[in-house]
Each structure stands twice: as C-alpha cells, then as structure tokens.
Specification:
The protein has one helix and 18 strands. The two termini are 27 Å apart. The radius of gyration is 16 Å and the shape is globular. The protein folds into two domains: 87 residues, SH3 type barrels; 68 residues, SH3 Domains (SH3 type barrels, Roll), CATH 2.30.30. The strands form five sheets. Strands 11, 14, 15, 16, 17 and 18 form a six-stranded antiparallel sheet that branches. Strands 9-8-7-4-10 form a five-stranded antiparallel sheet, with no helix packed on it. It has a three-stranded mixed sheet with strand order 1-13-12, with no helix packed on it. The protein is mainly β.
C-alpha cells in the first residue's frame, strides 16, 4: 500500500479560506451547461479577477494546472468560479477545462483517506491519501469516484473529495 503526500501549497490558490463541499442545485447557464458545475484549470498560472473583464484587478492566481474549481455563474466569456477554500472570482472560460479533477479532503489538515481497489465496501486498500492531494476523476457512481494520482488508481468515497457533488453520477 502506498501513501500519497499532499502538495497543497503548490495546488491551491491564495488566499486560503475555510470551506467544505456544498450541495449543488442545478440550473442552466447561458452556455447551456448546468450551474453550478465542476471543471479544472487548463494551464498555469490562471489569474482570478475581481470582476468579469481584464479591466478588473487580479484577486489571486492558481499556480498549477488541473486544480478543480466550481463554476457558479457565466457572463459572456467569463465564468465566476469558487475554489475548494470558498474563495470566488472571475476567470476567462478559455483558461478552464472540462476535465474532472478533485482534491482529497481539503477541509482537513491531517489524517488520510483510503483509496480502494474496487467501489465495494470492504475492498482492498491500495493507498492512503493525505488531504490536499490532487486526483484525476474518471467517473463517479453517486457514492464513490474512480480516481488516479501518481500512477495509483482506485476508488475514493465521494464525500471525501472536493470536485464532485454528493450523489452525482457521471462517466
């Protein structure tokens, strides 16, 4: 069994504020896509602005590609996003990707989350993942998500990640 370390300082945007995942109520934005929804940063750095134009000041920047963010509003080519710490701002949609990623328990500071071989209760643990680890998410079944990090693949309980809504299912 492997232990995956957290590199949260390199993954998260500044400033950091306490937060936990919130339940989503689905609406449809001007793009025709659901709001809110999870996406990820496409590149790095990604400047997050105080308003929906380049005339607005940069509030902070993401320093790593692939960080999950939640789109909460759309305006022209600008999306209002929320990070795992609850900070909000505006990003050009071209800087975001539809690729699903997640952070393991960013609201916790210590402990680990088991990654199992299968989505079944009692399945063999393949890794213990520390808070803040960035995961690629390929599917969720409403209870567990199939994830990968650092060459390790497995399933993590959906409520232990930030990047998928409770009961959300997708492939």
């Amino acid at each position: 069994m492997r232990r995956l370390p957290a590199y949260a300082a390199a993954l998260l945007a500044i400033p950091l504020m306490a937060g936990a995942p919130a339940a989503a109520q689905q609406a449809v934005g001007p793009s025709g896509l659901p709001l809110p929804r999870f996406v990820s940063t496409k590149s790095a750095p990604v400047n997050v602005r105080q308003g929906p134009s380049k005339d607005h000041d940069v509030a902070w920047s993401f320093v790593k590609a692939g960080v999950p963010v939640e789109i909460t509003q759309e305006f022209d080519v600008w999306y209002r996003i929320r990070d795992s710490e609850g900070a909000e701002g505006w990003v050009q949609k071209s800087l975001l990707s539809g690729k699903r990623t997640a952070l393991v328990t960013p609201w916790e500071k210590k402990g680990t989350t088991p990654m199992t071989e299968k989505a079944d209760a009692g399945a063999r643990i393949v890794a213990r993942v520390e808070p803040g680890v960035l995961l690629d998410v390929s599917e969720c079944n409403g209870r567990n998500c199939r994830v990968a990090a650092d060459g390790v693949k497995g399933w993590i309980e959906q409520g232990r990640i930030w990047g998928a809504y409770p009961n959300e299912a997708f492939r």
